[in-house]
Amino acid sequence: WANHGGRPWWTPSASASYLEFGKRFPGADSNAPTCDLSQAVMPAAPTPLPAPASGLTLSHVAIGRGTQNYTCDLTNATAVPTATGAKATLFNVSCIAADTPDLLAKLPSIALDLPIPSSDDETSPAYQDMSGHHYFLDATTPFFNMDTTLHQYGTGQFKKSNGSNAPSDALLGTNNQGFGSVQWLKLDAKDSAGQVLQEVYRLNTAGGQPPKTCQGMPAAFEVQYSSEYWIWAQ
Ligand SMILES: *[C@@H]1O[C@H](CO)[C@@H](O)[C@H](O)[C@H]1NC(C)=O
Ligand SMILES: *[C@@H]1O[C@H](CO)[C@@H](O)[C@H](O)[C@H]1NC(C)=O
Ligand SMILES: *[C@@H]1O[C@H](CO)[C@@H](O)[C@H](O)[C@H]1NC(C)=O
Ligand SMILES: *[C@@H]1O[C@H](CO)[C@@H](O)[C@H](O)[C@H]1NC(C)=O
């Protein structure tokens, strides 16, 4: 993804630079960010995912950075890795989604090659931009906890509703080495009456796929990944 006609990634066209985006924050001018999520458009999956249910509004766009977890049955010579869940820290990129979608599309690939920013210190920029955490309650129940000590955006239990393979040119993994990028997904609330967060799309995934077989793998292992998460609420 590094070059567009010989230009580096931060100059997507001859007249534009993503670095300008960094200058667009308060105090500024007519280029101030709008952060108008009603203008944000989700990227289309290779096999189209169903649209959000009518009546929902896009409440948040986050970059998730973490690991997909797998186990291997070491007693079975032909076993394949079993997905057991994921664990990721979510960072607020709502304004980027609204204002510079082509930059957003590159962030999972960029984030995958960077360490997960430390977010323990409440005063750190990483903590201030942290939307929350994503993990699994059991193998089939992804959970989003969007509450931190700085804000309460809610929590939600989900279930997989639909999936699409990632595009064929998606990254293989960290440093573009590995076994591919996990599926793009649509998740629906497990109990839609009981939570504000209703639907979550995992899009523009980078990395996360396990090897095809368990040969040479340990009983449990993690694969680094990053992704966009588009979170829709009532
Ligand atoms: C996934 O969504 C597509 C498009 O809406 C639909 O045609 C397909 O049947 C869905 N698949 C599943 C497993 O629900
Ligand atoms: C070994 O793994 C293969 C591939 O997942 C599976 O089809 C088979 O049932 C497994 N055998 C046992 C004994 O679990
Ligand atoms: C995300 O960040 C933008 C810009 O800082 C802010 O306006 C918005 O409230 C944040 N939203 C959430 C849900 O964190
Ligand atoms: C898998 O994910 C959990 C969090 O859900 C984490 O604590 C654990 O260390 C991960 N890795 C392995 C190899 O189980």
List the helices and strands and how they pair.
Elements: E1 57-71, E2 82-92, H1 94-99, H2 101-112, H3 125-128, E3 130-136, E4 142-147, E5 152-164, E6 184-189, E7 197-207, E8 220-233
The protein binds 2-acetamido-2-deoxy-beta-D-glucopyranose (4 copies).
Structure description:
This protein is mostly beta strands. The protein has one domain. The chain is about 10% helix and about 35% strand. The protein has an 8-stranded antiparallel β-barrel with strand order 1-2-3-4-5-6-7-8. The radius of gyration is 18 Å and the shape is globular. The chain binds 2-acetamido-2-deoxy-beta-D-glucopyranose (4 copies). One 2-acetamido-2-deoxy-beta-D-glucopyranose binds near residues 76, 78, 79 and 80. One 2-acetamido-2-deoxy-beta-D-glucopyranose binds next to loops. It comes from Friedmanniomyces simplex. This is Malate dehydrogenase.
Give descriptors for this structure.
single chain, 234 residues, mainly beta, eight-stranded antiparallel barrel, globular, binds 2-acetamido-2-deoxy-beta-D-glucopyranose
Estimate percent helicity.
Answer: under 10%
Major β-sheet profile:
8 strands, antiparallel, barrel
Structural class: mainly beta
Computed over alpha carbons, the radius of gyration is: 18 Å
Task: Give the oligomeric state of the chains in this entry, treating copies of one chain as homo and distinct chains as hetero.
Answer: single chain
Hetero ligands: 2-acetamido-2-deoxy-beta-D-glucopyranose
Give the number of helices: 3
What general outline do the C-alpha atoms trace?
globular
Order the strands across the largest sheet as they lie in space.
1-2-3-4-5-6-7-8
- Secondary-structure element order, as H and E? EEHHHEEEEEE
The overall average pLDDT, rounded, is 89
**Count of discrete domains:** 1
Instruction: Give the end-to-end Cα distance, rounded to a whole number of Å.
Output: 36 Å
How many beta-strand segments?
Answer: 8
Low-pLDDT regions: none
| Percent of residues in β-strands | 35-45%
Pfam families: DUF3455
InterPro entries: DUF3455
Protein name: Malate dehydrogenase
